[in-house]
Amino acid sequence: xxxxxxxxxxxxxxxxxxxxxxxxxxxxxxxxxxxxxxxxxxxxxxxxxxxxxxxxxxxxxxxxxxxxxxxxxxxxxxxxxxxxxxxxxxxxxxxxxxxxxxxxxxxxxxxxxxxxxxxxxxxxxxxxxxxxxxxxxxxxxxxxxxxxxxxxxxxxxxxxxxxxxxxxxxxxxxxxxxxxxxxxxxxxxxxxxxxxxxxxxxxxxxxxxxxxxxxxxxxxxx
Amino acid sequence: xxxxxxxxxxxxxxxxxxxxxxxxxxxxxxxxxxxxxxxxxxxxxxxxxxxxxxxxxxxxxxxxxxxxxxxxxxxxxxxxxxxxxxxxxxxxxxxxxxxxxxxxxxxxxxxxxxxxxxxxxxxxxxxxxxxxxxxxxxxxxxxxxxxxxxxxxxxxxxxxxxxxxxxxxxxxxxxxxxxxxxxxxxxxxxxxxxxxxxxxxxxxxxxxxxxxxxxxxxxxxx
Lengths: 222, 222
Ligand SMILES: [Mg+2]
Ligand SMILES: [Mg+2]
Ligand SMILES: [Mg+2]
Description:
Two copies of one chain form a homodimer.
Chain A: E1 9-12, H1 17-22, E2 33-36, E3 41-43, E4 50-52, E5 60-62, E6 64-70, E7 86-93, E8 96-97, H2 98-107, H3 112-116, E9 121-123, E10 127-128, E11 139-144, E12 147-153, H4 161-169, E13 179-181, E14 189-191, E15 196-206, E16 210-220
Parallel strand pairs in A: 1-13, 3-9, 4-16
Antiparallel strand pairs in A: 1-2, 5-8, 5-14, 6-7, 6-13, 7-10, 11-12, 11-15, 15-16
């Protein structure tokens, strides 16, 4: 069982070519990342609310992603043994204020507010890596009000998990409990108050035989 | 005494006009920020090393800043009572891979690697707010090898601390132990292996009558 201590969330951008294309972005030649603060996490297993900070954004998008949970300290780790540093996995939503992000991109400013607002990181239950023998055959999906918006295989990642760990750990030490969000497949889109987002990994059965699926309602921040 | 639990570091950009100008940047109309991860913190009171991640950057700059340490949970706090949420202060270096930051700015990409590499956040001892009756009359300074590089009064901040707390807490909840870096005065510049950075707050006497000054050697990351 993985204990999640306060640590950091590192999110990889444009790691599925089809998603980079849908937003009109160029493809990165090496993995790039941004941070989401721990204060952005909500527990999707409890169905906690995703809050739209309406004073700041009017265009919040869902991005369903595979989260990699670090199990042991990784500094300057090579690709060859990178997978040994993983403790588990989870499904996540990298909720994004797209309007604020586009403004930041244009001005050359940080993405931090656009990616880091409260409730912008709903996480599913963390599962031990033993339940995920192959992290590249997972079918991520995301529905809004029971309509499928995103689906894609983790096999379509441009930079594989071991490459990401190698690349990041050259610059930033990864610590137990850190979470790496590995990018989103295509189909991202806007949500508004009253929507319900259902997301998970298709076909994955956890501990008690349950589906690995979560739901979070969308509300406006009060 | 302030206990620093694992939390987040929020750093404000371009909050001293003279510094924005020296880098050829436009002045922001509202405070913008980026994150530094807790893994970037080193203890300047122990004289820990600042490591240049040479595989990634060849141009690391010092930025001396006043750090505001949050004392109690702040969500949607108004300017009028924002100062009540402060627990203490510290001096900090917002070490920056300027080459990587400039690349990121040009491409519209996050600043996270440029601002978040290991050892990029040396912190002086956290002091209780009772020792700082007026946070706007502090003289920040930064020397490299005993030559003065930066000096400036915290009175020159564009956005005051209460405005920053109001603005950030609309989007992101501030928690006890969070640190806000409030921007740097002019004079930023490059350091290389073998340099020693000495920084602090001029004239400030702490607990035992000691000067509030710290030194960190600069080395290349091995
Ligand atoms: Mg950022
Ligand atoms: Mg994403
Ligand atoms: Mg700075």
